[in-house]
């Protein structure tokens, strides 16, 4: 995304567009030419458990509540 794109969709700059998205004034997925799906690489130092078991059963799959933040930090 660039400032030119922001101007094309009706905003003064990229920062004003970002504020509108963060403030829920515009829905990101409805913006033209925007991919709403993104992929993350595997986490640094790998997964800590089995990838086929649920998180509660000692694996890595499924809902993990607040622990998702730690996993995402390792993926970024």
Task: Give structural attributes.
alpha+beta; two-stranded parallel ribbon
Global shape: elongated
The largest pleated sheet is described as: 2 strands, parallel
Q: What is the percent of helical residues? A: 25-40%
> Helical element count?
3
Sequence of secondary-structure elements: HHEEH
Task: Provide a descriptive summary of the structure in words.
- The protein has 76 residues and is of the alpha+beta class.
- Helices cover 30% and strands 11% of the residues.
- Strands 1-2 form a two-stranded parallel ribbon.
- The longest helix is centred in the N-terminal third of the chain and has 9 residues, at 14-22.
Q: TL;DR of this structure?
A:
By secondary structure, the protein is of the alpha+beta class. It is 30% helix and 11% strand.
SSE diagram, text form:
Blueprint: H1 3-8, H2 14-22, E1 50-54, E2 59-61, H3 68-75
Parallel strand pairs: 1-2
